[in-house]
Amino acid sequence: MLKFFSNLFGSKKEKDVSLLQPLVVEINEQFALLQSLSDDELRGKTQEFKNRIAESTKEIKEQIAEIQEQLKTENIETKREELYSSLGDLEKAELETIKESLEELLPEAFAVVKETCRRLVGQEFDVVGYKLKWEMVPYDVQLMGGIVLHHG
After folding, report:
1. What is the DSSP letter of 5?
2. Is the pTM higher than 0.70?
3. What is the dihedral of CA 88, 91, 96, 98, to 10 degrees?
4. How many CA atoms lie within 13 A of 115 on its CB side?
5. Region 69-98: what's the mean pLDDT?
6. All residues at 6 or more sequence positions from 111 whose CB lies less than 8 Å from its CB, including other chains
7. What is the distance between the alpha carbons of residues 126 and 132, in angstroms, rounded to a whole number?
8. Alpha-carbon gap, residue 87 to 79, rounded angstroms
9. What angle do CA 25, 28, 31 make, to 5 degrees?
10. Is the pLDDT of residue 45 over 90?
11. Containing H/E element for 8?
12. With contact defined as beta carbons under 8 Å apart, do 118 and 27 qualify?
């Protein structure tokens, strides 16, 4: 009976993979584009990501700073409570905006990591006194695992 429903509707695993597959395709497309960048340009992607997140939260951060300044001078208790309530709402909005920005950046950020791994293949590193030869470039299934971990 369970097999019947599984065949009819598909398994949870199949549904999960089908939801993640478009992101993996996008990561691999971005990965292909990054191969032409220099090492410095690839390193610069991290700062670009930070700047994009900062830009997305700029307005909210300004509002938070404004309320914090008002709290320094406000003495009326009811007004302070309103300000703290507004501050809490803005902080939640800031976290939500960061979350949305990270979601937008996810394919490109994962592609940067994958490209960095590709460039490191064959290089040796000293890790706690042992030589380690880098031989890892994430497979699609590992990208899916990373996406699941990112989503919590």
Report:
1. H
2. yes
3. -170
4. 25
5. 93
6. 27, 28, 29, 30, 31, 33, 34
7. 6
8. 12
9. 155
10. yes
11. helix 2-9
12. no
Contact 121, 134 (CB under 8 A): yes
144, containing H or E segment: helix 140-151
Record the tokens describing residue 13, joined without a space.
């695993």
Helices (H), 10-127: 12-34, 39-73, 77-120
Looking at residue 18, its pLDDT comes to 87
Domain residue spans of the chain: 12-151
Q: Which residues pair with 130 in a beta bridge?
A: 127
CA atoms within 13 A on the CB side of 132: 10
Q: DSSP 3-state assignment of 91?
A: helix
Predicted confidence (pLDDT) at residue 147 exceeds the cutoff of 80: yes
Q: Tell me the CA end-to-end span of the chain in Å, nearest whole number.
A: 32
Q: Which residue has the tokens 């394919």?
A: 107
